[in-house]
Design goal:
With 119 residues, this protein is of the alpha+beta class. Helix 2 packs across helix 3. It comes from Halobaculum marinum.
Length: 119
């Protein structure tokens, strides 16, 4: 009997899925960095990151007044569209859920198990 341990099909599939997710994440992270690379023509940005159970974000705008508000709304709309598309739900549902959670963002669990629990 050999000491070699071969992945079972289920384990191999999970390992492949993890590797694919890591590759997809690295690709998107590189794309985000590329967007920020040439900051000379940026007029607004919003970046959010999740590390464990912590959510951090930052936003910046060069414009002021109504233009700053429009840019901020455009960024929000872009994020809502991305979330809705990934979740396979309509924009209005994501917007309503986001609005109801906005006041709790510092307290929100970021894992699937804690998401349905009452605070």
């Amino acid at each position: 009997m050999s000491d070699d341990t071969a992945d079972t099909p289920d384990t191999a599939d999970a390992t492949d899925a993890d590797a694919d997710a890591d590759t997809a994440f690295a690709t998107e992270l590189a794309a985000a960095r590329a967007l920020l690379d040439d900051a000379d023509d940026l007029s607004a940005l919003h970046v959010g990151v999740v590390r464990g159970d912590r959510v951090d974000s930052t936003a910046a705008r060069r414009s002021e007044g109504e233009q700053a508000g429009l840019e901020t709304l455009a960024l929000l709309a872009s994020h809502l569209r991305t979330v809705a598309d990934e979740a396979g739900v309509d924009y209005e549902t994501v917007a309503a859920d986001a609005a109801s959670l906005a006041g709790q963002v510092d307290e929100l669990p970021t894992d699937a198990e804690g998401a349905g629990e009452d605070a």
